[in-house]
């Protein structure tokens, strides 16, 4: 259910299920038009505690993931990881397929619980999460969504396993459409190291803010970590850490009831002044100005 805590509203998967008796507590699959009618409040910024994906079959307008805006279009699919913030501003009738699933839904089925790490659209980075499907790829993806919906509605034996297989097939189909190059054996270790670095940043960004802290946990030197980040991501390790702190600050600022001094405290800044300087240096505006801009935008939506 919705939690009215000090942070932006967070929805658990059970809060979004209908009353018809769900096939599984860890899964929701539904035509998006019906889903949107049942949950009109989801147009305002909020978070999920589960994975969320949506394939548009019609619609116009904009949607926002972690404060990056994307235009809605037929054939677009987006993926969101738990904790990301998003909102919608649609124009006219919008439809498609929405699928929500818990972190446990696939991990309980796969022998390798890191299998889905290879799909960059699930990594929680907005720029990687929104894809435009065309032609046969769009038709195949739409058909897979339809098959998942059919299995969920009919509730046949082993339906959950069929759904999991279809979902993995969907991931592979979308990933192949992006033309991801084959990773050479010599590069695999570096990619695993970077994934572990991002995972550690996600866990510790509020308390560990220096590359050397993460390098120590990865058993590499800070220079090596910086070189990997620069080569693969185009940024220094310190930038990756600062970007994650900034993103969390923006997420917290969406809640108008949370004092900025409290946000600074939650993110382990020594005082509100230091937090404001940090935020303005990276964005060009103060936390107060950012919050006002978000509130003004939401009031016009």
Automatic annotation (TrEMBL):
<keyword id="KW-0238">DNA-binding</keyword>
<dbReference type="InterPro" id="IPR037923">
    <property type="entry name" value="HTH-like"/>
</dbReference>
<dbReference type="Pfam" id="PF02311">
    <property type="entry name" value="AraC_binding"/>
</dbReference>
<dbReference type="InterPro" id="IPR018060">
    <property type="entry name" value="HTH_AraC"/>
</dbReference>
<dbReference type="GO" id="GO:0043565">
    <property type="term" value="F:sequence-specific DNA binding"/>
</dbReference>
<dbReference type="InterPro" id="IPR003313">
    <property type="entry name" value="AraC-bd"/>
</dbReference>
<dbReference type="GO" id="GO:0003700">
    <property type="term" value="F:DNA-binding transcription factor activity"/>
</dbReference>
<dbReference type="InterPro" id="IPR014710">
    <property type="entry name" value="RmlC-like_jellyroll"/>
</dbReference>
<feature type="domain" description="HTH araC/xylS-type">
    <location>
        <begin position="195"/>
        <end position="293"/>
    </location>
</feature>
<keyword id="KW-0805">Transcription regulation</keyword>
<dbReference type="Pfam" id="PF12833">
    <property type="entry name" value="HTH_18"/>
</dbReference>
<keyword id="KW-0804">Transcription</keyword>
<dbReference type="InterPro" id="IPR009057">
    <property type="entry name" value="Homeodomain-like_sf"/>
</dbReference>
<dbReference type="InterPro" id="IPR020449">
    <property type="entry name" value="Tscrpt_reg_AraC-type_HTH"/>
</dbReference>
<protein>
    <submittedName>
        <fullName>AraC family transcriptional regulator</fullName>
    </submittedName>
</protein>
